[in-house]
Amino acid sequence: MIEYKILHLFSGIGGGALGFQQAEEEWKGIEGKFRTLAGIDCDPEACEDFEKITESSAVCMDLFSRQQFIDFHGQNPPENWREAMPEDIRAATKGECPDVIFTSPPCKGFSGLLPEKSAKSKKYQALNELVIRGLFLTMEAYRDNLPGVILLENVPRITSRGKKLLHQVKTLLGQYGYLFSEGYHDCGEIGGLG
Fold it and tell me: What is the pTM of this model?
């Protein structure tokens, strides 16, 4: 059985990680499964839940740049706060290089539930930009052994409200040699949800 190592950025409580961990597949006689290296999230309670649900380590890490922190929170970070660096991402996986990155960055700024005026505010733009910062830190952390696959999950409106941001994502990942496959799926339809 082939084991693929996976890192979860903006992991939340671990629903995505659990799904990967439960997935086993066979193709042309080759069996494969996923092993979670770590989940990274800024919410300590989510990290605690992640560890309980997935039985894998979670690292509580704020991926905002200093300016993004100020723009989102409206104040300077606490004195003990520091910007995450690529070596922090690498330390989260104990130096192991992931084969797959699954990232589910905050989607509030792209959601249709947020009025467009609010979505354009510095606060929500800072939140939206976490996808760029998280991917940049991860690419730099594993520059010498890049993950084979990066999956970005978000709400459908990212393609309109976040069109410029998605262009930045493609530009960034293109600089590291990645090709793109864009697609859509409806979790309600796939999982029989409401």
Answer: 0.90
